[in-house]
Target: Tail specific protease domain-containing protein
Amino acid sequence: MPQTGYQEFDLWTMRDFDVQMTADDRRNTASGLRDLLRDYYVHLPQKVGAMAINPDRELELLADDAPLYLNNLEFLDRLNSVFTKLRDRHTALRLPDPLNRMIAFLPVVLESCYEGGRRVLLVTRIAGEVPDDQLEVGVEVTHWNGTPVAHLINQFSWSTPGSNPYARIALAQRSLTLRALGYMQMPQEDWVTLSYISLKGERRHISLNWRIALAPDGGGGAGGLLSGAAMTTPLAAMVGLDEGTEIINTGLKDIFAKPRRASVIRKREGRHGGLLSEPLDGSAGLENLISASTLTLDDGRAYGYLRLFSFSVPDVRGFAEEMAQVLRQMPPAGLIIDVRGNPGGTIPAGEALLHMITDRAIEPTRNVFRASRPLRTMSGAIPFFERWHRSLEMVYETGQGFSQGFELSDPEHYAGLEHSYGGPVVVVIDALSYSTTDYFVAGFEDNRLGHILGLDPTTGAGGANVWSLSQISGFAAEAGLPPIPHLPVGMDCRVAVRRALRAGPNRGLPLEGLGATATQRYFPTRRDVLGVNEDMLIAAVNLLQQPPP
Model:
C-alpha cells in the first residue's frame, strides 16, 4: 500500500478521464515541439539515421490532423509515440497534472534471474494483501494474460524509449508492473491475469487489478533539478537525468513495503566463502543517495561497498566533500561501486567521483552543441556557453554539424579531494544505469580505472546534457531570441541539448545509443534477487583480484 501520502484507486475508474485541450492547443503543441526538436535536439541527425525515423514530418502531420482527434489522451498517446521512437529517455514529453503525479501499478514487483542457463522472472515484492496466499515472494511468473512472459517483454520493449536492445528489455521488464503515467501510456487492460508456479510447484493463475497511486501536489517530480528559480544557472544547465526512472525508483520505495530480506549479508558456507556486511558512518548528508558498508569475508579480508542510487545533487562541492569522507573509511583492499538502476542527476557530480578514486589525470568526456542558428546566437550571448561560440560561428566555413567539444566539470568541484580512495575499484552496472551514470561509467572505462561488472552488456546509453522547455525558454529570452511558446495544460518537455563524446581509446565516439561496456558479464542468481545480491558481490570481489583492463 502507498505509505507516504499517496491516494490509491483502481485504474478502471479513470477510463472516462480526458485532458482539456482545444484543436488549436493540439495543433500548436505538435508544431511547437517540431520546432523545438529541429532547433535544439542534439541527437536529431543520429536518430533520423540510426532509427530510420522522421520526427519532423511526423509532428507536421500530427499538427495537420489535430482537429480530427475527439479524445485528447489519444492525441497525447500519438504525440508520445513520436518521442518514444527517438529511443532517448532524456528527450521526452511530460504529460500534465494529474497524470504526471500518477504511477500505475500491479501489487507485485518482478525481477529476473538465471537458473540452469534460463532467464526466469520472480516475484520479489508484494504490496499489501493479494487474493491468493500462494502468490508469495519467490514464485516464478510464466505467463501474462496467456502470453509467455519472455515473449511479452520482447514485444513490449519496442514501446519503451531504451537506447539499445539491452535498455529496451530492462525498461520493459521494469515497466511490466510499474508505470509513470507522466511519461508512459496508460495500461490497456483494467486487470492482468498472471500465471505462476507456486513454491509448492503448482501451476496457478491470479487476476490483479491495475491500481493508481496519486502523489500529493508537488510530489510527481524528480528532485527539482530541471525546474525552479535557478533553472538557468550554470549548474542547472549541467543535468543528465532520466526523470521517469527516478519517479519509478521513488515509487518502489513508497508503494511497496521493504522486501523480506536480511538486513545484513549473513555468513554462508561455499566455495567462495561467506560475506558479512556492516554499514559505515559518515554519509548522513547523502542518506537518500548512497548506502556505504564494508564487506568482510570469512578469511577476514575486508572490502568497501558503495551503492549509488542517484547523482541528483544541487551542490556538487558538498556532495564531493561528503563522498570523500566516506571513501576514506573504505578498506584499502578494494571498493565495489554499484550504480545499477541509477538514473543520473548532476553531471559534474558523477565526473567529480572519478577524480576521487584514482591518482591519475582524468581525460574528460566532452560535450557538443548542434550547429543550429538559435544555439549559435545563445552561445554568443550567455557567458557560460561562450567556449562553444567560436566553433559555432565557424560552421559556414567548416561545414560541421556540431560545435567543438568541452567538458562540463570544473576542477573546483573536487580540488583537494583527488585520490580519496587508493585501492582497486570495480563498478557494477545494468542497462538502467543512465545519463550522468553513463558519464561516470564511460569515464571509468575510457580512463581504464578498473573492471566493470555488468548485469547487462552495457549501460543505458544516455549520452547528453538535458534541458527542460522552461530552461530553453529562459536561455532564449536571455539571448534575445523569439519567445518559445509554453505547452498547454501544464505539459512540459525535456530535450537533450549537449551531446557527450567519449575519451581515451573511444575518443570521439558518441555515448548516446552505445553506452559504456562491461568488461565481465554477470548473470544474477535466485539468491541475488531474493536476498541482498550475495553472489553478485562475491563475483565483484573476485574481479577486484584481477589485473586492471
